[in-house]
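Q: I'm building a small set of examples for a reading group on sequence design. Run inverse folding on the following structure and report the sequence directly after it, with nothing in between.
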């Protein structure tokens, strides 16, 4: 992503021919990090017997292969990820002790209860009991509309629960591992744009300290989705279409947003067609539609309603189709006209801010002819911006990788960006985390 002249403010490369894309720059080889213990340590004496020597050689070879796969930059990114996970855990601990539900209590409860909030219970119920346990279903009174949630995360939760019996820990573990995969992929996407710079680490920093970053650390589907989606986009950038299609299909099983990613990859395929000319990969780009079709047919077999997912969204979350200007007006009323409690009004204010950020991002992507990324952001905003009011837009920013890569590259030209971001956004991230961990609505 390269900008020029006075407009060099963002991550996005403008090419002379919008239908062509320059060849991807090769990722530079990382020099050995002299600060790592592996570089300083003296090898232990090798075993003397032939069998032991062979085993020792295999172990050393496997360890060396793992260290080669994780570059020094990757290791620094993972260290940053671990430190932010520690910060989220400390925030949850503090929230439980400082803001208990009962101000007079002397027992704040078990630590894990802070992670058991809101959508977590939908995922838990699906993983534990299925979509339609017993005789209950969307036709019964008081139904929780759980069919609005795609099955990918509950399936993985059920599988991990077979190894780790504690449901909440299993959900947190899924997000922990998935988040590590996601930040590595995000760093490598940024590295394609500005190889040999700090853009990759800065993009990850901006991402992990974003206002809604708490949802990457709890039993929600965002981290698992990104663990599939970001490597899928990285594969598409490298013209590995089969891998991109398979990973996008996995992402689509987790969230409907996977279809938006599939559309972006299809746009990228067309825009770069003259560079790769791989028509044979075209059927793989349709693969992400298979999980959606399978899930909709499953719901139809139980409800007789082919659009059961959409109707669950409408019944449970007011996601009825509304013109975007009416959606803005309704959200503005909820945010500032004192018709909602203060906590909910604050979240609706955050929705409006996220919409503005999305529009600015979309404008920059179009300005620099990044058609695939623009399609991804535009479809996502259209899906969330045409309901009764804006809902979950701040959480959706976590899925906008062009935003985080863009900030990382922008910071190369304007070093004050990081300082301003940390001063403004880091406190907001803590506030949102406290809001979530204390059981209040956090978007």
């Amino acid at each position: 992503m390269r900008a020029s002249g006075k407009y060099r403010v963002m991550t996005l490369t403008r090419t002379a021919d919008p239908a062509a894309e320059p060849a991807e720059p090769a990722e530079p080889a990382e020099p050995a990090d002299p600060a790592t213990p592996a570089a300083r340590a003296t090898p232990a004496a090798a075993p003397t017997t032939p069998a032991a020597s062979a085993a020792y050689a295999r172990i050393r070879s496997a360890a060396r292969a793992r260290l080669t796969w994780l570059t020094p930059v990757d290791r620094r990114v993972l260290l940053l990820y671990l430190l932010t996970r520690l910060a989220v855990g400390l925030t949850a601990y503090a929230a439980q002790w400082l803001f208990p539900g009962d101000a007079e209590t002397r027992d704040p409860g078990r630590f894990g209860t802070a992670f058991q909030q809101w959508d977590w219970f939908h995922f838990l119920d699906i993983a534990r009991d299925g979509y339609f346990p017993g005789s209950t279903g969307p036709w019964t009174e008081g139904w929780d509309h759980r069919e609005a949630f795609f099955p990918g995360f509950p399936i993985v939760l059920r599988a991990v629960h077979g190894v780790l019996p504690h449901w909440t820990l299993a959900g947190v573990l899924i997000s922990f591992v998935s988040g590590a995969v996601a930040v590595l992929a995000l760093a490598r996407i940024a590295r394609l744009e500005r190889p040999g710079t700090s853009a990759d680490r800065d993009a990850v920093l901006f991402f992990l300290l974003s206002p809604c970053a708490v949802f990457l650390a709890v039993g929600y589907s965002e981290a698992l989705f990104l663990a599939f989606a970001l490597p899928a986009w990285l594969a598409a950038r490298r013209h590995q279409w089969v891998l991109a299609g398979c990973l996008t299909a996995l992402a689509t099983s987790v969230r409907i947003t996977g279809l938006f990613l599939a559309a972006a990859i299809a746009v990228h395929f067309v825009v770069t067609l003259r560079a790769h000319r791989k028509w044979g990969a075209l059927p793989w780009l349709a693969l992400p539609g298979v999980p959606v079709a399978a899930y909709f047919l499953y719901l139809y077999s139980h409800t007789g309603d082919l659009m059961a997912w959409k109707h669950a969204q409408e019944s449970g979350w007011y996601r009825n189709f509304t013109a975007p200007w009416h959606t803005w007006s309704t959200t503005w009323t909820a945010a500032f006209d004192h018709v909602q409690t203060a906590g909910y009004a604050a979240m609706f204010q955050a929705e409006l801010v996220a919409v503005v950020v999305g529009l600015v991002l979309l404008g920059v992507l179009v300005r620099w002819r990044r058609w695939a990324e623009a399609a991804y952001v535009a479809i996502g905003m259209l899906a969330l911006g045409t309901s009764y009011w804006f809902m979950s837009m701040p959480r959706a920013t976590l899925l906008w990788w062009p935003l985080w890569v863009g900030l990382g590259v922008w910071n190369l030209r304007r070093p004050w960006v990081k300082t301003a971001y940390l001063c403004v956004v880091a406190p907001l991230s803590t506030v949102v985390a406290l809001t979530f961990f204390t059981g209040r609505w956090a978007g």
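The two ends are 32 Å apart (CA to CA).
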